[in-house]
From TrEMBL:
PANTHER family, A to Z: TRK SYSTEM POTASSIUM UPTAKE PROTEIN, TRK SYSTEM POTASSIUM UPTAKE PROTEIN TRKG-RELATED
Residues annotated as binding K(+): T113, T114, G221, T316, T317, N433, V434
Family matches, as InterPro entries: Cat_transpt, TrkH
The entry's keywords: Cell inner membrane, Cell membrane, Ion transport, Membrane, Metal-binding, Potassium, Potassium transport, Transmembrane, Transmembrane helix, Transport
Name of this chain's protein: Trk system potassium uptake protein
Record's bilayer topology term: Multi-pass membrane protein
A Pfam short name: TrkH
A Gene Ontology cellular-component term: plasma membrane
Family listed: Belongs to the TrkH potassium transport family.
Length: 484
């Protein structure tokens, strides 16, 4: 590969490292305010990362190159690698006796908004560490939306750009310039975060809890300030508020922006939104009725817990209001299959995503019609748009690689000594960026603190693969990518 592409990629990564170093001073000030010595760790990490990033940026500064696919692939992988390593530094240096593998796993889980954690004793943990984890998830959510809306559609390996920014036709653009859209996106993202924090505070959370949970709800990340997650609060109104915001943030942000700024209600009739809300409501109601009939739980309480936990899984947030694996075998099976599905493309949610299910269903329907009328011409559509064969192949390739990586990863976890349920569930929740899995070890009542370092490295890689849509990472392993 042309070495000139490395310079701009490293330069941009160094600038992003500066931003993340600046963010470290926020938890430093929080710890200093509460009188905890960890403020020194965050301050030292901020100065160290900031100094290295500044020197690297100055050394690699130069003329801006033309943004090509090859540069895009390299830049995306480099940025997420830098974010993961930088985010792990305060966690490793803090006085919590985390190994480097655990620190890196926690950082990647935050940046990819997965929500799996190796930390326990969150209720008595220093506020700076808790806020740093939440900030990493919130900032990761911004990167994920930008990735899904702009970078992946350009690279043709995922995403679905509503704005068609590469087109010269501006008649359908809600905003004439990318800068206008970026400002609108940040305004909506910050506005939803503030609304969520206010709602949590109104429903009974403390200010610190409300801030942290708002940051991780909007990012659909799921880190909590308590070991029991939402079960700590024992509040039905909080469950409904959380379910609402998790669902909203599982929708495409591009369409949310058009809805909020332009008041265009027709955007909410997007096919993937209809499908996502459809299977969310179906799963939640079915689980609530099952929980009510099998365990005698009141229907209102069962509905609140079911909607919260199902929306948490489908939005890949990772909160838990109760250990739903104790509700019965149907609850376990439903949660396991829901882990595959995910939210909408262009949101902070992970998983296979509703967009791919819509296209896959239409491909199957078109194939069945061709069996009956082999000479007829049928096109695969997404709403009023025709899905090109290249995009169809990309969807099949993604799903095939997703299943392949899940199988290989599960076998690797089993080779490291874990039972089938823990292995399959941990790998699945990493690929889908969900957070908690199934079973006593990685289930909603447990965490990943007892997972060995080699297994944590494996799961960390899978979290990055799942978040970057798999193909974006694997393309770097092909020899043709590095040829001149």
């Amino acid at each position: 590969m042309n070495a000139s592409l490395l310079r701009p990629a490293i330069y941009i990564a160094a600038l992003c490292g500066l931003y993340l170093a600046t963010a470290m001073f926020v938890p430093a000030m929080i710890d200093l305010y509460y009188g905890h010595e960890d403020w020194q760790v965050f301050a030292l990490s901020g100065f160290m990362v900031g100094g290295i990033s500044l020197m690297t940026a100055l050394a690699t500064r130069g003329a801006s190159p033309v943004f090509t696919k090859r540069l895009g692939f390299l830049l995306v992988n480099l940025l997420w690698a830098v974010f993961s390593l930088v985010g792990a530094i305060p966690l490793y240096l803090a006085d919590h006796e985390l190994s480097f593998a655990q620190s890196l796993f926690e950082s990647i889980s935050a940046i990819t908004t997965t929500g799996s954690t190796v930390l326990s004793g969150l209720d008595t943990m220093p506020p700076g560490i808790l806020l740093w984890r939440s900030l990493l998830q919130w900032l990761g959510g911004i990167g994920i939306v930008a990735l899904g809306l702009f970078v992946l559609p350009f690279l043709r390996v995922g995403g679905m750009s509503f704005f068609k920014l590469e087109s010269s036709d501006t008649s359908d653009k809600p905003f004439a310039r990318l800068a206008s859209f970026t400002r609108a996106f940040m305004a909506v993202y910050v506005g939803i975060t503030l609304a969520c924090a206010i709602a949590y505070g109104w429903a009974g959370m403390t200010g610190f809890d409300a801030l942290n949970h708002a940051l991780t709800t909007v990012a659909t990340g799921g880190f909590s300030t308590h070991d029991a997650s939402f079960g700590y609060f024992d509040s039905i109104p909080l469950l409904w508020i959380s379910s609402l915001f998790m669902t909203i943030c599982s929708l495409p942000f591009s369409l949310l922006i058009i809805f909020v700024v332009r008041r265009r209600l027709n955007t909410l009739r997007d096919p993937q939104i209809v499908v996502f809300v459809g299977y969310l409501v179906t799963f939640a109601v079915a689980l609530a009725v099952y929980h009510h009939l099998r365990n005698g739980t009141g229907l209102g309480t069962a509905l609140a817990h079911s909607f919260h936990n199902i929306s948490s899984i489908l939005s890949t947030t990772g909160y838990a209001s109760d250990d739903y694996t104790n509700w019965g075998p149907f609850a376990v099976a439903l949660a396991f299959f829901a882990t595959f599905m995910g939210g909408c493309t262009g949101s902070t949610a992970g998983g296979i995503k509703a967009y791919r299910f819509v296209v896959l269903f239409n491909i199957v329907g078109t194939g069945l019609k061709r069996l009956v009328y082999p000479n007829a011409v049928y096109s695969v559509r997404y709403g009023s748009s025709i899905i090109e064969p290249e995009a169809q192949r990309g969807i099949f390739l993604f799903i095939a690689l997703y299943i392949f990586l899940w199988a290989v990863g599960s076998l690797a976890m089993a080779l490291l000594g874990y039972d089938f349920l823990t292995s399959a569930s941990a790998v699945l929740t990493a690929l889908s960026n969900v957070g908690p899995g199934i079973g006593s070890i990685v289930g909603p009542a447990g965490n990943f603190s007892t997972i060995s370092d080699p297994a944590l490295y494996l799961l960390s890689l899978l979290m990055l693969l799942g978040r970057l849509e798999i193909l974006t990472v694997l393309v770097l392993l092909t020899p043709v990518f590095w040829r001149q």
